[in-house]
Design goal:
This protein is an all-alpha fold. The protein is about 70% helix and about 0% strand. The chain contains ten helices and no strands. The radius of gyration is 25 Å and the shape is flat.
């Protein structure tokens, strides 16, 4: 009789802390951040194709309107497909938030990540501008005060890392169980990724239809998580919500604000 194959969670539990951290860092830095930026760009275009009248007001009752509807629906569905993929079930080959938290939701892992922040900030050092004080005792007292202040700041960052990581993990699990995500995943499985009469979820219970705006709400939540995981796991700050969204919106604006249709009425 063959032995039962171990679950993903059981395999993770066998990994040492350093390996879990390294895998989480690679997953966030090389997969999830790029995935989020792609979705941000898709949504910036969908603000014109799906949610704005900037283009639709130029299209009269015509065959062209049917073509535009297909274009906007395809772009919207692709956005739903990509945002839902960020929330796929945790697995070794799945680049999702649920995979990330399987690697880091562990006391020793969080402790080690907090220690990384402690060491990184404690070793930054400080510099005093101007000429040093002529009295050696005063200089020593100043240096000691600066080192103490630096250590205190490093400890605050380490404590902050623990709090932020635990909060991000908690929010990830809360979103994973949310009705809005369930609606989007059901839409993805039923109409986008497959063509089903009834999904597995629908066989178990009634699922409300997905609503326009569900994907935008989930994107905002996903951006917040990506920024926090990138900061407190990878040790790097990245303003996706403001900077990356502004860039994506400017690019979409440069295209769609300069597109003008001239379509005869049907």
């Amino acid at each position: 009789m063959s032995r039962k194959q171990k679950s993903f969670q059981e395999r993770i539990a066998e990994l040492d802390t350093a390996t879990r951290i390294e895998r989480a860092k690679v997953l966030i830095g090389e997969k999830i951040i790029d995935h989020i930026l792609e979705i941000v760009a898709i949504h910036a275009n969908n603000e014109y194709l799906v949610y704005s009248k900037r283009l639709t007001d130029q299209i009269p009752f015509s065959y062209a309107a049917n073509a535009y509807n297909i274009l906007s629906q395809t772009s919207f569905f692709f956005g739903v497909l990509r945002i839902a993929a960020l929330w796929d079930k945790a697995d070794e080959d799945t680049a999702s938030f649920l995979t990330v938290i399987e690697y880091i939701d562990d006391d020793e892992v969080i402790k080690a990540l907090a220690e990384e922040h402690l060491q990184a900030h404690a070793s930054l050092g400080s510099r005093i501008w101007g000429d040093p004080h002529p009295d050696p005792e005063v200089r020593a007292a100043i240096d000691q005060s600066i080192r103490g202040s630096q250590q205190a700041f490093a400890q605050r960052q380490a404590n902050r890392a623990r709090r932020r990581l635990r909060r991000a993990i908690c929010i990830t699990r809360k979103i994973a169980a949310s009705p809005s995500l369930e609606r989007l995943q059901n839409l993805r499985n039923k109409h986008i990724a497959h063509s089903l009469r009834q999904t597995r979820r629908e066989k178990q219970k009634s699922i409300d239809p997905a609503k326009y705006g569900d994907e935008a709400h989930l994107l905002r939540q996903s951006i917040w998580l990506a920024e926090n995981f990138y900061c407190w796991v990878n040790g790097t700050s990245f303003d996706i919500y403001k900077d990356s969204r502004e860039i994506a919106r400017k690019q979409a604006q440069d295209l769609w604000e300069n597109v003008n249709f001239s379509i005869p009425n049907r």
